[in-house]
Please model this.
Amino acid sequence: MIRSLYYLKAMGYNFTDKPSHIQPKIKNFENLRSNIQKCNLCHFSKFRRFTLMENQLKPVNLMILDTFGQKIENENGYILESKKGKTLQSYIYNILGLKKEQFYFSYLLKCFSNGKFDDFSLQSCLPFFWNEVELLQPKFVLCLGEYAFNSLGFSDFNALRGEIFTHKNFFFMASFNLEFIEKNPSYKKDFMEDLKKIKGFL
Model:
């Protein structure tokens, strides 16, 4: 029970002695980001220096979701400034023609996790993510990696990877994350082909 109350508090609820009408979602991006920065629902919050999400909403069509951020991003607060992030930016620009300011990037886990994840941390972060999506209203969401894809409630990554489908009024597609491609370079071509499929939707 106490854990649930802490979670509601992190999402912006206030507790009073009198019943009141409470809005279920945070309606302002700055407030959402502030609440995430103050969240202490899971042990990853102990490692957080900066919230691993963009600093502001951008009027863009493409949102890209990965699982966890890099150490340098936690240290300096700049998303996609790691080696992996710059590689991804290069793919997105070369294939989709989009610069960093022309797409929105987010991590499933909003605090630095040192490459680790668990179900409790995921369940703590998921409502923040869906709130983020609803505020952004992207046309297309690209999920990088099997864990990110399955965490959103989908299944059978291998069968659906590269397939475009709709969910909650958004287009979704799953592809490989860059850690997987680095370990399995033969899949780089498949990843690039997946990106090409998105172009017509943007």
User: Anything to note?
Assistant: The first strand starts at residue 62 and ends at 66. Residues 1-7, 16-24 have pLDDT under 50 and may be disordered. Residues 9 and 15 are 8 Å apart (CA to CA). The two ends are 44 Å apart (CA to CA).
